[in-house]
Amino acid sequence: MESSNAHVTVTASSGAAVVLTIDGALDAVSSSAAGESLREAVDSLPPPSLVVVDLSTVGFFAAAGVHLLAEVANACTRRGLRMRLVVAPESVVARVVRIARLDDLPTYPTLADALHN
User: Fold this and answer.
1) Is there a contact between 30 and 3 (Cβ–Cβ < 8 Å)?
2) Alpha carbons 93 and 69: distance in angstroms, whole number
3) Residue 17 and residue 46: Cα distance in Å, rounded?
4) Where are the domains of the chain?
5) Is the pTM of this model over 0.85?
6) Which element (helix H / strand E) includes 9?
7) pLDDT tens digits for the chain (117 residues)?
8) Alpha helix (H) ranges present in 3-51?
9) Which residues make Cβ contacts (< 8 Å) with residue 50, sequence separation at least 6?
10) Alpha-carbon distance 69 to 51, whole Å?
11) CATH architecture of 7-116
């Protein structure tokens, strides 16, 4: 099975927030590379900063992606950071988030909602 790479873009937003946009497929191979970017961004933030992980353009979300998000959520909790997810409603990612019980994390349908709520 051929793997699509996930691309992670890290952008600062107004206030004490960082947005990490993941585009593509989060599979076993790409989750490792995406994880490096996510961990680096989380490690650089002071509490109580906001970390928003935008998954709205992820087309494939494997177990490795679930593990990565759980790991980042735990790192945020340990560091006193707030974490939110952007997930397109009714998407495959939304279903996986529910099944994996990651919906305990605040989840929003748009980036604007995640940043302003």
Assistant:
1) yes
2) 12
3) 10
4) 7-116
5) yes
6) strand 7-13
7) 344 577 778 786 655 788 999 988 888 888 888 888 888 888 888 889 999 999 999 999 999 999 999 999 999 999 999 999 999 999 999 999 999 988 789 999 999 999 988
8) 28-43
9) 15, 16, 17, 18, 81, 82, 83, 84, 115
10) 12
11) 2-Layer Sandwich (3.30)
